[in-house]
Specification:
369 residues, alpha+beta, Phosphorylase Kinase, domain 1, Aminoglycoside 3'-phosphotransferase, Chain: A, domain 2, 2 domains, 3-stranded antiparallel beta sheet, 13 helices, 44% helix
Length: 369
């Protein structure tokens, strides 16, 4: 297994400025999009750790723009931390340059590669293991937005155009239903109707961004807890990772996706719908952490609409899963032919729970403001 893995990446390794002699490689499987490897190099008595990634060019059509965004944002974050007299080590993603000084390598068959310093002695949890971790995730994503408050969002490229343009995603969904590429539409009529009934709600944030009643922020757009590194010794958040989708957006999206993923009582692909609801203790913990960093620069209109963000992002993702299922599973990695359908149904169930408890969610926000 190791030899096969090494053979897959051995031609890539000399392109980057890794220090020492190659010792080992391990493929990491937590992400849905890119292929990721943990590398170790030995440099005398020292062991150096690196992350090597192959960017999914089907999802990210312009990897060069992805890397430009990452370079701009990480430079800004690093300068902000240094400006406060702190060390940026382990607190900001640190790209490894290639031997030619660039940060993006294109191999002979057209795959795109990049590398980072690996953040050692820290963990990105795929689920909430300790409640305090979710508070720390809220604080980390809040700090991320705070440090980028004065960054010119308009200088960033939309790495996935119309990523949270839910009206456009709805029309993409309708087109997928009409095309029925994988011949699956006949079995999911109730699921299709579910999204038609929520079309107006899904478009509320996009409409407010368009008419200026919500401000445009630099946002992460993939705020799952496994995109926050938690220090193994202190249980404190140290770094926000996976910056491929950093682009202009709304704070509501970042808050909403974090709650959708982390405060659900089940995995996002849980087949037993009876297990799925919202954990209000976790909801309040994340909200408290998020507002501890953002309550002061986010506008009151944003704070009051945070529960809408949870609903919109849950509905949007459910619809994206179903769209991909209808198209034949082209976007998300799947473990079987019904995986995207299971994901869609799980998120639909979570949304119905959010709808039942929206007033309670709002009360938590008002209490903490």
């Amino acid at each position: 297994m190791f030899n096969l893995l090494y053979n897959n990446i051995k031609s890539i390794l000399p392109k980057f400025q890794f220090k020492g002699r190659f010792a080992s490689a391990e493929e990491l499987h937590s992400g849905n999009i890119n292929s990721t490897y943990h590398l170790t190099y030995r440099d005398g008595d020292q062991v150096n750790h690196y992350t090597l990634q192959m960017i999914n060019a089907y999802v990210f059509k312009d990897p060069a723009s992805v890397m430009r965004n990452i370079e701009l944002v990480t430079d800004h974050l690093r300068n902000s931390i240094v400006g406060e007299g702190h060390s940026p080590q382990r607190r900001v993603l640190d790209l490894i340059p290639m031997v030619n000084g660039e940060t993006l390598h294109i191999d002979r068959i057209g795959n795109y590669w990049r590398a980072y310093h690996y953040i050692n002695e820290a963990t990105a949890y795929d689920a909430v293991k300790k409640p305090e971790h979710f508070y720390e995730a809220g604080r980390a994503f809040g700090e991320f937005q705070k440090r980028l408050f004065n960054f010119p969002a308009e200088t960033l490229t939309e790495t996935i155009p119309n990523f949270h343009n839910t009206p456009k995603r709805f029309f993409t969904f309708v087109h997928a239903v009409d095309q029925d590429l994988a011949g699956r539409v006949g079995e999911i009529e109730d699921e299709i109707e579910f999204f038609f009934e929520r079309r107006k709600m899904m478009g509320e944030i996009a409409k407010r961004l368009s008419n200026g009643t919500l401000p445009v922020r630099v946002t992460h757009n993939d705020t799952k807890i496994n995109n926050v590194m938690i220090d193994d010794k202190t249980d404190k958040s140290i770094c926000v990772i996976d910056l491929d989708t950093v682009m202009p957006g709304s704070s509501l999206y970042d808050f909403g996706d974090a709650i959708r993923f982390g405060a659900s009582t089940a995995a996002e692909d849980e087949p037993d719908l009876n297990k799925i609801t919202l954990d209000f203790d976790l909801y309040e913990l994340f909200t408290k952490g998020f507002l501890s960093e953002t309550n002061g620069f986010l506008e009151r209109s944003e704070l009051e609409l945070l529960p809408l963000g949870v609903k919109v992002i849950t509905c949007e993702l459910a619809m994206r899963f179903l769209t991909d299922y209808i198209d034949g599973d082209l976007y998300f990695k799947v473990t079987g032919p019904d995986h995207n359908l299971t994901r869609a149904r799980a998120q639909m169930k979570l949304l119905t729970e959010l709808e039942k408890n929206e007033e309670k969610m709002q009360a938590v926000i008002l209490k903490l403001m």
